[in-house]
Design a protein that fits this description.
By secondary structure, this protein is of the alpha/beta class. It has 37 helices and 33 strands. The strands form seven sheets. An eight-stranded mixed beta sheet has the order 14-24-23-16-17-18-19-15. An eight-stranded parallel barrel has the order 26-27-28-29-30-31-32-33, surrounded by seven helices. The radius of gyration is 35 Å and the shape is elongated. It binds adenosine-5'-diphosphate (ADP) and magnesium ion (2 copies).
Length: 925
Amino acid sequence: MSKKWVYQFSEVGEAEKLTGSWDGARALLGGKGANLGDMTRLGVPVPPGFTVTTRGCNEFLAGGNKFPEGLWEQELAALAHIEESTGKAFGDPTRPLLVSCRSGAKFSMPGMMDTILNLGLNDKVAAGLVALTGDPRFVYDSYRRLVQMFGSVVLGVPDEVFEAVITGRRKAAGVKVDSELKASDWQEITRKFKEIIRTYTGKPFPEEPLDQLLLATEAVFRSWNGKRAVDYRNASGIRHDLGTAVNIQAMVFGNMGDDCATGVAMSRNATTGDNHLEGDFLVNAQGEDVVAGIRATQPLDELASVMPAAYAEFKAIAERLERHYRNMQDMEFTVEHGKLWVLQTRDGKRTAQAEVRIAVDMVEEGMLGKEEAVGRVKPEQVDYFLHPQFEASARKAAGKLASGLNVSPGAAVGVIAFDADTAEGWSKEGRDVIMVRPETKPDDVHGMLAARGILTSSGGRTSHAALVARQFGKPAVVGVAALAIDLDKREMTIGEQTIKEGDVISIDGTLGDVYLGALPTVIPDIDNAYLTKLLSWADEMRTLGVRANADYPADAVRARAYGAEGLGLVRTEHMFFESERLGIVQKMIMAKTPTVRAEALAALLPLQRADFEGLFRAMDGLPVIIRLIDPPLHEFLPPHDNLASDLAALKMQLQHFHTLEEMDQALGVIRQKQDHLARVTELREANPMLGTRGVRLGILIPELTRMQVRAIFEAACAVKREGVAVRPEVMIPLVSHVNELRSQKRALVEEAKLVMAEQRMEVDYHFGTMIEVPRAALIADELAAEAEFFSFGTNDLTQTAFGISRDDAEKGFLMYYLEHGILEENPFATIDAAGVGKLMEIGTQRGRAVRPDLEVGICGEHGGDPASIHLCHRYGLDYVSCSPFRVPIARLAAAHAALKYGPQLKAGAQPAASGNEAGKGVVLT
Ligand code: ADP
Ligand code: MG
Ligand code: MG
């Protein structure tokens, strides 16, 4: 016996049994077919039908577009079943059965063959149906739809040709809309359509119903390899070997009079998540009429008064389907002479806001468990609550200009700039810019960075523009094919509309839409009650801590409000750049004698102390990790080239001065600049990233880090006196040798003790180190003997592990690498598990082997990236630290990691030396 290629809707259970799971049944029958079968099984009124499997499709394509043995015979047998259950017969004019042919892959995707309705009609059957229904207008309208759909979808005749015929007929009949055309008009149109098909394809329209069925089935199979479908799968990472199923289903008619209707519905509001059945319907209409927008639809609520019984039944079914799938449903229905039929159901697409609300509501309605609800919301959806978006009402009112791929979320408004230099220049003048290009190249990056958003007319999800935009969090829409850019004329056209450089546009990177003019943006509400609840559930599930990187008290307050459990990184040098401080810092750097330097440091001390007091107060009761000065000193002085050119200009001016006073003043400035230049020249390094920075600075200028530690402990004592619970942790950056750590730590602990003695106060504190060069990870055991905590600085660790400088890489070869697949992911966005991650595992394990209670965290930007957070969970880290805005995302991602991998096991918690399996369960290979 040949294989089973065809399943009646009523046989969905068999498909499930054969494949072993519901997911397997969906793969075999496609999403649409599996759900039609599932609804049939539930007793929902579904017109009878059958599904030809995706295996049948794959076999057909593999065999050179030939049906595999037995497939057609099984299709005929299944058709006989439909005939039996409907009491009608395919091709029989006295009791005609009509069917639809619907494609349906496992994942719904564009590019697959459009549905064909009313298969089974020909001249004889049409005449029979007229006799039966007494409604020739209905019959010939249905007939012409079949010929039109069959002609365009199966035979490839451009649909415009058919539409032109209809328009011509309307003009001839002197009517405005299709619905005013009479039966005879449609009959004539059908005849004309067939003529077109014959001239266009050289063959007549297939009158024989079984030929129609066969050709339609084949066409669905072939559409799997259509260009649009292949492109879509490439862009969205769907496998090419899944194949599509074909669904053949008895027709029901929403267009047989005023007791008929057709509609679409969502079981909840897809924008807000409100638990209310929503949708649109049309009385006396068929299939696509509702979505095609030819006639104004009615809101579904009105069906309650138009057809109360059908509405009540549909509402009950919608609720049932929701409970069954435990998800919001997107449904299609038709009412034929008062009888309700459901034609499709699937999980509904929705906004992030709706996703969160629905997940929480469904837990409260007892439909979902908390874990499932938390697992369902994606970290990017939480991101939505933190970035400006366009208001839904404003989007509707404005009407979009064009659409493309939504490659980087968020809303952006600005003036169009057609090249990177213009974008950068205008942005420096304080204008918001949208950079628009046919596509972008590495040379464009400076403009993209300066722009608010990026728009391109070509390119896909992995194009340069898309990669860069996501990398830098810039909203972007790419591949807007409708956009014709004329770089010479400095304008672009979309359809009839011409838009010039400097005109204002709005782009929606979340939805992939482009609008003319400035749309108002709103910051969605982070205090949203549903989000707050969902995140509180996430907190119950996660075992990984979440802290924030913050330099100012205001940021710390925000971080805490977003749920941070401490600060994982305070960068002390950021405050040095503030205008009233920079002068003092420069004086400290320029100091030629210890006394001058001491003076400068003494002036900085109270300023730093005040910074820390604010942070400690904001984080009352929570740990605060303060990193001592990190960047090379020359960063605090003017750039070498600027100094040199300023000096040259000043010397030129000298000859033009008239008074001695002017002269003196100028000479003073020249002297100062010369001093700076001399010092800058002295400090100049070939590779500052690898030069005198981090702990190396603290060792060379111990007074500086001593001052910082003094400020930390004076601040700690002061706020403790106010009743604040302080937990300072002092972090030493860029250590590569244990002696560096020893020498710095000794000096600093001494200073801390000194301050506490002066203040007659004890403060709980820790000293620790960053791990940001490979050597430090490898000697983590030695470091752990000194350090009470580790924090992986994964930005530097990635640079030093790869031996690449991030600034140079991202402007240069890295984008090329990503575009050409040499690197699959940007290691500065997601931790490179094989290399950098390996170093983190080794560091954690070796550190904890020596000091089992060693606190280990991460403070690089990766700390806010969901994939990296999963890795940190698996490495057994205590916490991740990220920007305040990413704290809610990190909380959710950490919960996902715990759900996926189980609670963390701390590597080395039981010393390996004791012979038991240290870190069992942790991925430490
Ligand atoms: P899509 O995937 O584009 O939604 P569908 O296969 O769902 O395509 O069908 C397109 C339209 O035709 C929908 O409105 C659907 O409800 C309608 N339709 C499909 N099959 C039938 C049928 N057997 N009877 C009545 N309407 C149908
Ligand atoms: Mg559909
Ligand atoms: Mg660093």
